[in-house]
Specification:
It contains 28 helices and 29 strands. Bound molecules: zinc ion.
């Protein structure tokens, strides 16, 4: 049984048989709160008359199927999420009339009622294969077609899709019909429908190739938070930059950005109709990292309009290319066209760590993954596909030079416009523009797995000069590929209280050892930094003297990117049990207060907290928790009033607080008896404080309900659900389990809030029973709950707080015997690996 799966082979066979001439999709959104009417008419040709194929439709009640004028019985033709189509003619018309179900998981057509005002909001989310939850499709990216959407909805609603919104025609009873113009040729997964009582603003970008209408949409209850000018500024900067850099005018006419509720990811590149999670319209104070990331998301989706929507991968094997490209392009554009000119530092501090972590999990895979079916694709929206791919693409750009890269792209966009391509097509275009052979590069970086480690090895002479110097390259024994790397090397000395770069050089690293004759005879610096400039994708090691220098003086390095590399090296060494958790926490406490990179300031406290709770030796942990709590408290009190540091440290202090004195201080911030100059205790920060009190047994259900009565918004409800799950009580965990794992009617974002608040360090007693329960449900969760719910539970409810050898053994036994599908097992295997890593780090920390 295929279930909702689809294999690459099935898709290829269908693509060989069919061309899809057009879709007409009629949706009736006036038929109730749980289902909507969906009538699809598909015109398509078949190259082998008489053959059979199938169309896709998930979870529908099918009333009528007609193929070429002949009725087909749904009872026999519609099964297992497919409609069987037999006896095809050269030219065919398929009509399917059905009722489909509104989603509460963010997959398909999601329906949301705003608790703030009871207004209704719908939006679609179709990637990877979920257009088939809304209309009848041939659900694969290489069967592009033109789509005509016809939507019946309440007349006071806004209805938005890929084509410009038409004037609606009244249809009686307070409803109206929107008949959209046919789209350009699109893949099903980038089509979209957004409808409801949205607030709308219309603006425009006047560009070199003409005017692009720009729409902004959000819920009525968020209008006051829609910061139009900032959003328009980056949108216009993006269009000006990309239209020029890509040498191809924006292809989809208008550009709407719609901020939607309960959204599973950051945003989605529907052609001309981009949806973004509406947490990006913050109601409370946020730091610069938040706004920088939002800019990157906006630019990422915009880049997809060309790379992804205009030219689309044939099959999901090239998902990496789609995402890596958008990722590279958004950072490149942020640096070149916006105020965030140091975005590559943020990339190092935030995204590359994600890639390195993912690449060391047992589930790692080549960047160019072998996505044999949809199940394989759905778990690959990961750190390899996005961040490692983007790191490697950045190298490719350096390898072929930017101007050749862009010239190749322009040709590629013209050659494959409104069509599909494969990675080889892009490589051919780049070889043509650059004159360089790229096959071996692609083989080395895209077809292989794992991250290399680069370490300095040297001898010193009597005067403290390098007598020899090599860069050693290592690899995990399971993934032994050694690669070619272009790296920078920086030599820093302490000069008048600062760490000052004395010298830097660039060199090619190849094989297990690379001699560096330029350094022989050079006096050993206080800090020797490999991969300066962050050209390479590799973990780097610090020699003992350099590590000591960094721990004592990271704050005295002026270059933010050099600091980011030091932070990253120290974090990798901690995770790899080559540096103790204690050392890492000391490093963060010494350098965090003066760190200037927004992502460094916002992410490092989380890494340090992880070092405290997971990587420290259990017998030394209590003291380290106190050190961390008091250290963050001091940072908070020393932070400049109103600064991002102050906000970030307030959050970190709330997360670290566990002593009575610290918790008293959180209470005082909440009730206003303690005021920190410049720190606004706004709605979201209040919830952060309440959550901390709940986690420590100082906020009961009544207290949480009281907070919710002050903030009865969807955000408030999600925060309250989180706070309830954080409590160190058996009944709290039981309720959380029931709501997040057993029930089906808890909406996606609320479920995620509960799931991510379940496993709490230090709550071993109440969490112990959930080891067996987790493994028991993991057997069948994927099939029973679907991709979205199941993956959230499997990833975040893994009992990693209870790290022990016994847990590893129990999980190994489960992995041996469980009937769970590979996607579910992947999450369990990753959780197991986290535990094994934590135990190694704890042993290192125990040695001091
Ligand atoms: Zn993307």
């Amino acid at each position: 049984m295929p279930g909702t799966n689809l294999t690459r082979d099935e898709a290829a066979a269908r693509a060989a048989l069919l061309e899809v001439t057009s879709y007409e999709v009629e949706l009736d959104l006036t038929t109730g709160d749980t289902t909507f009417g969906s009538t699809t008419t598909i015109a398509f040709t078949c190259s082998e008359p008489g053959a059979e194929t199938f169309a896709d439709l998930v979870g529908a009640t099918v009333h009528e199927i007609t193929l070429n004028g002949t009725a087909v019985d749904p009872a026999t033709a519609y099964a297992d999420s497919r409609i069987r189509l037999t006896g095809l003619a050269a030219e065919n018309t398929l009509v399917v009339r059905a009722d489909c179900t509104y989603s509460r998981t963010g997959e398909g057509l999601h329906r949301f009622v705003d608790p703030a005002d009871d207004r209704v909001y719908l939006y679609s989310q179709f990637e990877v294969p979920d257009a088939r939850r809304v209309f009848t499709t041939f659900e694969q990216p290489d069967l592009k077609s033109v789509f005509t959407f016809v939507v019946t909805a309440p007349e006071h609603w806004k209805v938005v899709s890929n084509s410009p919104s038409p004037e609606p025609t009244p249809a009686g009873d307070g409803s109206a019909v929107w008949r959209f113009e046919p789209t350009k040729p699109l893949s099903t997964y980038v089509t979209a429908i957004v409808a409801g009582e949205y607030h709308q603003e219309q603006h425009a970008y006047e560009g070199r190739h003409g005017t692009i209408p720009l729409g902004l949409y959000c819920r009525q209850s968020l209008v006051e938070h829609l910061d139009t000018e900032e959003l328009l500024t980056v949108t216009r900067q993006g269009f000006e930059f990309f239209e020029d850099a890509f040498g191809y005018p924006y292809p989809f006419g208008k550009y709407d950005q719609l901020f939607v509720p309960e959204y599973n990811m950051g945003a989605m590149e529907n052609a001309g109709c981009v949806t973004l999670r509406d947490e990006y319209l913050p109601r409370s104070r946020q730091d610069r990292a938040f706004y920088e990331f939002r800019v990157e998301v906006i630019l990422h989706e915009m880049a997809h309009m060309w790379f992804g929507d205009l030219v689309t991968m044939k099959w999901w094997d090239d998902l990496w290319l789609n995402e890596s490209f958008a990722e590279w392009a958004c950072y490149h554009a942020a640096v070149e066209a916006t105020e965030f000119t140091e975005s590559w530092t943020g990339f190092t501090n935030a995204r590359k760590n994600w890639a390195y972590r993912q690449d060391q999990l047992p589930s790692t895979h080549p960047i160019a993954a072998d996505n044999v079916d949809l199940h394989a694709v759905e778990v690959n929206f990961d750190g390899i596909t996005y961040a490692k791919g983007a790191s490697v693409l950045k190298q490719l750009v350096a390898w072929v030079r930017l101007e050749n890269f862009l010239e190749g792209l322009t040709g590629y966009f013209h050659d494959f416009e409104y069509a599909n391509s494969e990675f080889a097509d892009l490589l051919t275009a780049l070889e043509k523009s650059s004159g360089r052979e790229l096959d071996s590069w692609a083989q080395e970086w895209l077809q292989t797995t794992g991250v290399n480690t680069l370490a300095p090895r040297f001898e010193l002479d009597a005067e403290g000069r390098y007598a020899s110097f090599v860069v050693e390259q290592g690899a995990h024994p399971d993934h032994p590929t050694l690669r070619r790397h272009r790296i920078g090397v920086g030599l820093y000395d302490r000069v008048e209280g600062r760490l000052v770069r004395r010298q830097s050089l660039e060199l090619d690293v190849e094989g297990a050892t690379t001699e560096v004759p330029e350094l022989v005879g050079v006096t050993q610096p206080d800090l020797l930094l490999l991969n300066e400039g962050d050209l390479a994708y590799a973990k780097i090691r610090l020699d003992p003297r350099s590590l000591e220098t960094v721990v004592e003086g990271i704050a005295t390095i002026d270059d933010s990117l050099a600091r980011a590399l030091c932070w990253g090296a120290a974090w990798d060494m901690t995770r790899d049990a080559e540096m103790t958790a204690h050392q890492f926490v000391a490093l963060v406490l010494s350098g965090l207060g003066s760190e200037t990179d927004a992502f460094g300031v916002s992410r490092l406290p989380a890494y340090a907290a992880q070092a405290v709770h997971q990587y420290s030796a259990p017998e030394r942990r209590a003291a380290l928790r106190t050190t961390w709590e008091q250290g963050v408290r001091a940072l908070l009190h020393d932070a400049a009033p109103g600064s991002d540091h102050q906000l970030s440290f307030a959050r970190a202090f709330a997360a670290a607080a566990h002593s009575d004195a610290a918790l008293d201080e959180l209470e005082a911030l909440l009730d206003g008896s303690l005021v920190l100059d410049g720190l606004a205790v706004d709605a979201d920060l209040r919830w952060t404080l309440v959550g901390s009190l709940a986690r420590n047994g100082r906020a009961d259900a009544a207290r949480i309900a009281d907070e919710l009565s002050r903030d009865n918004t969807i955000s408030g409800q999600e925060h309250a659900a989180s706070a309830l799950a954080l409590r160190p009580l058996a009944e709290a965990k039981a309720q959380a389990w029931q709501d997040a794992v057993v029930r089906d009617d808890v909406p996606n974002e609320t479920q995620r809030s509960i799931v991510t608040s379940f496993q709490v360090p230090g709550q071993d007693d109440v969490l112990e029973p959930y080891v067996e329960r987790y493994l028991e449900v993991a057997d069948t969760l994927w099939e029973e709950k679907g991709t979205q719910r199941a993956s959230t539970v499997l990833e975040y409810m893994f009992p990693k707080q209870l790290a022990s050898e016994a847990l590893l053994a129990r999980v190994d036994a489960w992995l041996e015997s469980s009937p769970a599908n590979p996607a579910a097992k992947r999450y369990v295997r990753e959780g197991r690996d986290d535990v094994a890593r934590a135990l190694r780090a704890q042993a290192r920390d125990a040695r001091g």
